[in-house]
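User: Hi! I'm working on a homework problem where we have to compare a predicted structure to a textbook description. Could you give me the structure for the chain below?
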Amino acid sequence: MFTLVIILVIFPFFILKSISSAILYFSLLFISFGSSLFFWVRFVPFFPVSFPGFINTIQTLILSILKRTKSSYHIQAGKFDRDYFVIQNKPRLDALLIDENSAVIVINDAGEKHVSPPGYQFIKIREQVLHTFDLGFHHFFWGPRENVNPFTYHNPNLDLNQTHLYSLNVAQTKCQTKDEITVVPSFSIFYNFSSLARKKQMEVMLLNVSDYFSANKINGELQIEINNLIGECVTNIWKVLVENTNTKRLIFPTNQKSSLIDDFLLKINTTINTKIIENESYSRTLKVSNRLESVKPLEQWEALIIRVFLKSLWIQKDIP
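Assistant: Happy to help. Predicted structure tokens:
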């Protein structure tokens, strides 16, 4: 910074031969600075419009030059550009550059939270990032990923870790029918945060999501945690339906579609999105089951749109 002052202000006095040349030099310097400032204000959407914001910007730039540590972090698709959540003694954050598909929950020492939307956001003293969100379009599989029968699948080429991971994927959706036959579905799940939601509505929902995971002692990037919660909700709704169904009703020719399966998927998508159960008998079935307690957190997440499809369904062969 000191060197920059010498070059721009002091050094020209030694090379300029007249007062008119000095005036011309500083006029050009002023025009250049004014043009640059106009460009930032006109074309950069996150440039601060208030005087305190402008002071914070200058302070952050100066600190970024003088400090050895990096005070400004970039968050893209809900992820930090450097390690942050894994560090126990977290570094001081002066500012965050948040991309358009991300949002951040910031908390202070008093436990007060607020949402930092996309843009260049300043972090106050004694504030730190609690959660980050990827607001883009998401797709994941829930259940076995491989398109093979889990009741007969055996791959000697898999190591112990891969075998354990496959077993965990099967356990995610494994359940029994009314006549105690084991079935294993695989779901393809899509979700996104509605672009039609109002800003205030989105902020309230993100705070509700943050409160839910904070209560469960979960901090950091929340995409995987949201995936797991949605997957568990889908599985629990499926189990409620399948546990009251005989296995033979689930079996249909490979070249035909099952109206029962379509009805199950309709009920899963309706329950997990609108949480409104219109069918009285279906409503009674769900109410007597404790499995649907997992769906309750989603009731306040109105801007979260979820679509569930059945990728595969495997049924144990020994059907009576």
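For your comparison, note the following. The CA atoms of residues 24 and 55 lie 29 Å apart. The longest strand covers residues 182-193. Good luck with the assignment!
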